Amino acid sequence: GDSVTQMEGPVTLSEEAFLTINCTYTATGYPSLFWYVQYPGEGLQLLLKATKADDKGSNKGFEATYRKETTSFHLEKGSVQVSDSAVYFCALSENSGNTPLVFGKGTRLSVIA
Amino acid sequence: GAVVSQHPSWVICKSGTSVKIECRSLDFQATTMFWYRQFPKQSLMLMATSNEGSKATYEQGVEKDKFLINHASLTLSTLTVTSAHPEDSSFYICSALGLQETQYFGPGTRLLVL
């Protein structure tokens, strides 16, 4: 079945550091790919998404590129802030999003001033 | 826009009692809602897909008689944990399918069964 593997956390960075959270996937078809963020005590929020190969999703300084050849969707941000501290989930959906999401285990990011 | 609420946000109950969790799409209609369960420091696992006006579709290993799902309107789905036991303690999260086939998540309900 479909699966998502993302790097184990926690990740601790200093403010303004560069962030990369790796995510790879296994799917039978051509899934849509997502990054969700969960701030402490809150529900999941969609951060960005990409629906086909070579698409780049971006939002709030974060970006990720759908790489079909490496089945990857790594999340990057050039300069993190303390407010980016959260748990980040990589996910896929076999269709554009109207089917249930398959999530990775999540990566906890802590940014220190 | 695209706000999903859950009620209650947390609940403590005695073993053997039933607990109902509501999931509402506040500013949009959702024919499809999903129920997930999240264990501490783990990912979300899909429990069931709820479609308005029809029976829910449960994932393998999820007891449909224990986790009753009702999607009676386009803005409300409920999950009832019947005869709850301590092993049912978890964080339950719903999502509602909105515009552009995007899932919008509720804030979650933390259930503790004593």
Q: Name the shape of chain B in a single word.
A: globular
Average predicted confidence as pLDDT of chain B: 91
Estimated share of beta-strand residues of chain A? over 45%
Low-confidence residue ranges of chain A? none
Name the largest protein-protein interface in this structure: A-B, 20 and 23 residues
For the biggest sheet of chain B, the summary is:
7 strands, mixed
Question: Total number of helical segments of chain B?
Answer: 0
**Rg estimate of chain B, integer Å:** 13 Å
Tell how many strands the DSSP assignment of chain B holds.
Answer: 11
Helix content of chain A: under 10%
Chain oligomer state = heterodimer
User: What share of residues of chain B is helical?
Assistant: under 10%
Head-to-tail CA distance between termini of chain A: 41 Å
Radius of gyration of chain A: 13 Å
Order of helices and strands of chain B: EEEEEEEEEEE
Overall spatial form of chain A: globular
What proportion strand of chain B? over 45%
**What structural category arises from helix and sheet content of chain B?**
mainly beta
Average pLDDT across residues of chain A? Answer: 92
> What is the count of helical runs of chain A?
0
Q: Can I get a quick summary?
A:
With 113 residues, chain A is mainly beta. Chain A contains no helices and twelve strands. Chain B is 0% helix and 54% strand.
Can you lay out the helices and strands and say which pair or pack?
The complex is a heterodimer of chains A (113) and B (114).
Chain A: E1 3-6, E2 11-14, E3 19-21, E4 23-26, E5 32-38, E6 44-50, E7 56-59, E8 62-65, E9 75-77, E10 86-93, E11 102-103, E12 107-112
Chain B: E1 4-7, E2 10-13, E3 19-25, E4 32-38, E5 44-51, E6 57-58, E7 67-73, E8 76-81, E9 90-97, E10 103-105, E11 109-113
Parallel strand pairs in B: 2-11
Antiparallel strand pairs in B: 1-3, 3-8, 4-5, 4-9, 5-6, 7-8, 9-10, 9-11
